[in-house]
Amino acid sequence: MGLKTKTKCLIALILLGVVDAVIPVPILVVILLYVLSQRPPWFKDLVQEIYDKKD
C-alpha cells in the first residue's frame, strides 16, 4: 500500500523547505507564484484528492 496523498504532499513540502533553506533561491515562492498565476490543472486535482472524503 502506498503513501496517502496528504503524506506525499507533506514530505514534498518538507523537502522543498530544506532545499529553500540551503539554496538562497526561493523555490517555494517561485512555485507559489506559478500556481497562483497559471492555476495548473494538476494543482486543482491534487487539492481535490486531498480533501476528497473516501473514509
What does the model show?
There is one protein chain. The chain has one domain. The longest helix has 18 residues. With 55 residues, it is an all-alpha fold.
Short note summarizing the structure:
The chain crosses the membrane at residues 12-36. Keywords: Membrane, Transmembrane, Transmembrane helix. The chain has 55 residues and is mainly alpha-helical.
* End-to-end separation: 16 Å
Shape field = flat
Order of helices and strands: HHH
Determine Rg (CA atoms, Å): 13 Å
User: Main beta sheet: strand number and arrangement?
Assistant: none
Instruction: Report helical residue fraction.
Output: over 70%
Q: For the residues shown, what is the average pLDDT?
A: 84
Beta content comes to under 5%
* Oligomeric composition of the shown chains: single chain
Tally the structural domains. Answer: 1
Low-confidence stretches: none
Transmembrane segments: 12-36
Keywords: Membrane, Transmembrane, Transmembrane helix
